Amino acid sequence: MADFVKIAPVIVFGFFMAFTIKDLFLSQINSDVSNKEIPNVNLGPSKFAGPTLTILYCHSCGYKSAFEQYADVISKKYPEIVVVGRVYPASGYNSLLAKMLFLFKFLILACIISGANLTPYIGRLSSAWSWCISNKFYSCAMIFLICNMIEGHLISTGAFEISFNDVPVWSKLETGRIPQPPELFQIIDNQLRFQGKTFETNPEMTL
Questions:
Q1: Which UniProt keywords apply (predicted)?
Q2: pLDDT class for 80, splitting at 50, 70, 90?
Q3: pTM of the prediction?
Q4: Residue 56, SS3 per DSSP
């Protein structure tokens, strides 16, 4: 019974890490698929092709829900407009650092859970490592949370970039905010007038 009490936290944390890795890779696959669903191909003017509103958003900032709300209200107010959403990619340098930190995190966690003796290699940090081995659950949880916060900061872009038929019409990176629904409706109306297209709209639709 005593042995089970000792290894129970390790088993629970192992399941937690397994599900976290699964969710991470599934979200990455879904993001890649969504980015490949509609390629950036210029079809040229056509009476059969409706205008496209593309929104690139920061996933780690929680802007996916904002995109879904805007996409819903725009689709109802402008039925002929195709609304496309994609994740705004982090810079290559930050993305690489986040991936390296991700691998380093799970390497350290694996060493702690397995009880690897790294004291001959880490010098002054040997006492800290001994504490981690003695308190596996708490040390793993602390390392996991801290590394996750750093990874989130590295891949966070704060972006909510809007383009109409590949023409940028709003940038949160430049303005510092997401447009209000009336502002976005005005932008869309101006773009439609500029391109000489008119569609039936529902003026009562608001976010």
A1: Membrane, Redox-active center, Signal, Transmembrane, Transmembrane helix
A2: very high
A3: 0.62
A4: strand
